[in-house]
């Protein structure tokens, strides 16, 4: 059976470098399941792999879309499985990496059979979003499904809109609907997670934001001002700078908020991963050595 090695872990923990090391070891290619890195205009704020890193190993689903493109997790599942079929025709092993947990799940387990989006519900929810902000959507989801509220990326409006829409259509909790077992994949999934003490994770996130600022994040975000109302830009690293551009915050406040919201996202990632029982954890300080040693026993 072909093998998909999925590299998991919180934001800023070193997944990209480990994925490249593993892909080089098996002389294979990488598919990304980081939904923020799909957009070519958002390289700095999403910490997309550098040109040098992309040249080390063939990557797929990095910068293949524009922020003006419409793209769903369902379409990603279709595209990723098609790409895997192509890659497995020439490789025994393929590497996947990214911190978007639901996108990883879409590939490794498949999405549930859920109804298509309701135009009426979307219009109503967008009105709530416009009038009450993302907090209004968050509170509505919390009332409807406390379990999914604890799992979801609360700063991702697409997740909130989708979950609430499905709950309204089906009358059932979204967390219940997505827990239904799905069809088995025809490849073996091996999940490797990078772990570190929480204070180390938070420190790495803070330093990563500072590097983004030095690399030109303000200029990148400014270039995206005309698109600030599009869903891809409703994300950490950009929304805070849009507040700065509007004069509501100074730059120091915006940077502080980027760090805080990035740490909040990492906390939600940790909560998600704690519930997963099939991840082989390796220490961030020796992740390459530990991962390759572990994979040698499983894959050969």
TrEMBL record:
Origin: domain of life: Bacteria
EC top class, as a word: transferase
SUPFAM superfamilies registered for this protein in UniProt: P-loop containing nucleoside triphosphate hydrolases
Catalytic activity: adenosine(37) in tRNA + dimethylallyl diphosphate = N(6)-dimethylallyladenosine(37) in tRNA + diphosphate
Chain positions recorded as ATP binding sites: 9-16
Site (Interaction with substrate tRNA) location in chain: 100
Residues annotated for substrate binding in this entry: 11-16
EC number: 2.5.1.75
Alphabetical UniProt keywords: ATP-binding, Magnesium, Nucleotide-binding, Transferase, tRNA processing
Cofactor: Mg(2+)
One BP annotation, GO: tRNA modification
NCBIfam families referenced in this protein's UniProt entry, alphabetically: miaA
Function: Catalyzes the transfer of a dimethylallyl group onto the adenine at position 37 in tRNAs that read codons beginning with uridine, leading to the formation of N6-(dimethylallyl)adenosine (i(6)A).
Assembly and interaction partners: Monomer.
Family annotation (PANTHER family): TRNA DIMETHYLALLYLTRANSFERASE
Protein name in UniProt: tRNA dimethylallyltransferase
Protein's organism: Chryseobacterium lacus
């Amino acid at each position: 059976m072909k093998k998909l090695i999925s590299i998991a872990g919180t934001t800023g923990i070193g997944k990209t470098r480990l994925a490249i090391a593993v892909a080089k070891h098996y002389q294979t290619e990488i598919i990304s399941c980081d939904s923020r890195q799909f957009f070519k205009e958002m390289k700095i704020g999403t910490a997309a792999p550098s040109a040098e890193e992309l040249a080390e190993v063939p990557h797929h689903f990095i910068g293949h879309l524009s922020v003006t493109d419409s793209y769903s997790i369902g379409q990603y599942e279709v595209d990723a499985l098609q790409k895997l079929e192509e890659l497995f025709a020439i490789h025994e092993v393929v590497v996947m990496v990214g911190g978007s947990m639901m996108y990883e799940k879409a590939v490794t387990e498949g999405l549930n059979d859920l109804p298509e989006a309701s135009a009426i519900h979307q219009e109503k929810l967008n009105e709530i979003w416009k009038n009450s902000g993302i907090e209004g959507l968050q509170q509505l989801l919390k009332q409807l499904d406390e379990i999914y509220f604890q799992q979801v990326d609360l700063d991702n409006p697409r997740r909130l809109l989708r979950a609430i829409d499905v709950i309204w259509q089906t009358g059932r909790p979204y967390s219940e609907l997505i827990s239904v077992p799905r069809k088995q994949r025809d490849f073996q999934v091996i999940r490797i997670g990078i772990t570190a003490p929480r204070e180390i994770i938070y420190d790495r996130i803070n330093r990563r934001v500072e590097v983004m600022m030095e690399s030109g994040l303000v200029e990148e975000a400014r270039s995206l001002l005309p698109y600030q109302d599009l869903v891809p830009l409703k994300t950490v690293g950009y929304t805070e700078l849009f507040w700065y551009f509007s004069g509501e915050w100074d730059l120091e406040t915006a940077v502080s908020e980027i760090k805080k919201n990035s740490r909040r996202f990492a906390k939600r990632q940790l909560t998600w991963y704690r519930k997963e029982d099939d991840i082989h954890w390796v220490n961030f300080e020796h992740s390459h050595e530990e991962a390759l040693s572990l994979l040698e026993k499983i894959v050969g």
